[in-house]
Amino acid sequence: MKILPCLCALLIMHAGARAATPDAKDLVGTWQAQRNLTFLELHANLTYDRYFADVFDQGRWSLRDHDTLELSAYSAVDKKIVTERHVISRFRGSTMAMRGADGKPDVWRKINYTRHMPRMSH
């Protein structure tokens, strides 16, 4: 009989954790990384603009399994599409903690800013 209360508690914890994961519409907007001050604009049409200082790239984004942000862009150096995966470990409205493609953790904050960059052709 002790198993039933434990099972119920486990299900409640799992449901609470799942509620804190984002949907794609939650990610649309401009995000700023706290560690390296990168700006990432995620657009509703699933394209993105990313910039840091004078470095700029564009591509497409997707959200996989409610916790993995994938950024795909054409690499002129590699002559192919390159995909970066960022795992979202915590999401709360305008703040998300992610482990970047380099494996290092960072906190991203949603800000009210946009550069409105024109789309580049490849």
Q: How many structural domains in the coordinates?
A: 1
What would the average pLDDT be, to the nearest integer?
Answer: 83
CATH class: Mainly Beta
- The stretches of 5 or more residues where confidence is low (pLDDT under 50) are 6-19
Describe the model.
This protein is of the alpha+beta class and about 120 residues long. The protein has one domain (about 5-110): Lipocalin (Beta Barrel), CATH 2.40.128.280. About 15% of the residues lie in helices and about 50% in strands. The chain contains 2 helices and 8 strands; from the N terminus they run ααββββββββ. The chain has helices at about 5-20, 25; strands at about 30-35, 40, 45-50, 55-65, 70-75, 80-90, 95-100, 105-110. An 8-stranded antiparallel β-barrel has the order 1-2-3-4-5-6-7-8. It starts with a helix and ends in an 11-residue tail after the last strand. About 15% of the residues are buried. Mean pLDDT is about 85; it is low at about 5-20.
Summarize this structure as a short list of keywords or feature phrases.
single chain, alpha+beta, 2 helices, Lipocalin, 17% helix, 8-stranded antiparallel β-barrel, 122 residues
Q: What layout of secondary structure does this protein have?
A:
Layout: H1 3-19, H2 24-27, E1 29-33, E2 39-42, E3 47-52, E4 55-64, E5 68-75, E6 80-92, E7 95-99, E8 105-111
Antiparallel strand pairs: 1-2, 1-8, 2-3, 3-4, 4-5, 5-6, 6-7, 7-8
